[in-house]
Amino acid sequence: MRQLEVLAAVIEHRSISAAGKALHLSQPAVTRYIRELETRLDVFLLDRTSRGVTPTSAGELLVRHARSISAEIRVAEEELKRLRDFDVGSVRIGMNLGVAYLVTEAMQRVLDTSPNISMNVVEGIQRELLPHLRDGEIDIVVSPLHELGGPGPELVEEVLTYNRTHVIARWDHPLAGRRKIPAQALLDYEWILPPRMSPVRAQIENAFDQVKVSPPRAGIETASSTIMRELLRSSDRLAVIGRSAIHGDYEVKLLRPLDTALTMPIRPVGFVVRAKQEASPPVARFIEVLREVGRSGQFAASER
To answer: What's the predicted TM-score (pTM) here?
Structure first.
């Protein structure tokens, strides 16, 4: 395991000397560990260039498996620790900001009964978070789920609830208060849209196609709901976001859904975990509470 740890550090830092500093090892010691591993496996693991060190395909493969092994060891350690102290351990969560409402509610419920469990949250979109989940760097990803194909054979997903999307605008937008706003009127304003080829972008374009109106052109493209919300608050721009994702902005009268003639999609929201790894007790507890929050209907698609 020490040799694998050294290899992972070299690949992460792209440098023998930087990896040595991180692991408190001398440069010759790091080199010796790598050579021993290459000799044992009869493959080259690193390419050394004037710009630094890069992994070979064999090196990338080995480190990926090493991370999975490390994740399994961490789970075993947490289970052993739980035998000594029932409510000690950690949950490493990858979260899309659009479902923060769901994650924070579940976190609070877990911590109310198990205050010694530590929660670590990383924000991002699903396609950025899934590689970290596969490598064992996080335990669970909570986000809108893939529309097609699923997350892949190494992972398994579960639907928790459904989130209705809406055309969102600032509270005192010129269109606010109007009923059944026609699609054509929405084109008078600049739009913030998800990146081209994303499932949500396709759903927005389809909603306009259904009423035989050309889809809006993107003044700004971003997958970040945080950036969308900031831009909406300070302009007359429009965007499509799940109603639950603007819950806080709605409560303080900053953002609101518009009543449009469009039929907007309902998106599944859920979590993704590794398929062949048993969850540690803290992670299992978090998943149990996530399911409770999803079943409660508090954030269901019927919100308007």
So the answer is: 0.62
Q: Which structural domain, as residue segments, surrounds residue 121? A: 87-161+268-295
Q: Name which of 6, 272, 279 is nearest 152 in CA terms.
A: 272
Report yes or no on 250 lying in a domain: yes
Phi-psi region of 89 (alpha: psi -120 to 50; beta: other; left: phi over 0): left
Determine contact, residues 272/159, Cβ cutoff 8 Å.
no
Same domain for 27 and 50, yes or no, is yes
**pLDDT tens for each residue of 84-114:** 555 668 899 999 877 888 899 999 999 998 8
pLDDT at 149: 55
Please, what is the end-to-end C-alpha distance for the chain in angstroms?
A: 53
State CA 187 to chain mean position distance.
Answer: 31
Task: Tell me the pairing of strands 218-221 and 191-193.
Answer: parallel
Contact 169, 209 (CB under 8 A): no
Distance CA 147, CA 200 (A): 9
Q: Are 89 and 282 in contact (CB under 8 A)?
A: yes
Which secondary-structure segment (H or E) carries 122? Answer: strand 117-123
Q: SS3 sequence, 249-278?
A: HHHCCCEEECCECCCCCEEEEEEEEECCCC
Give yes or no: residues 109 and 239 share one domain. Answer: no
For 196, what's the count of Cα atoms within 13 Å in the CB-facing half-sphere? Answer: 6
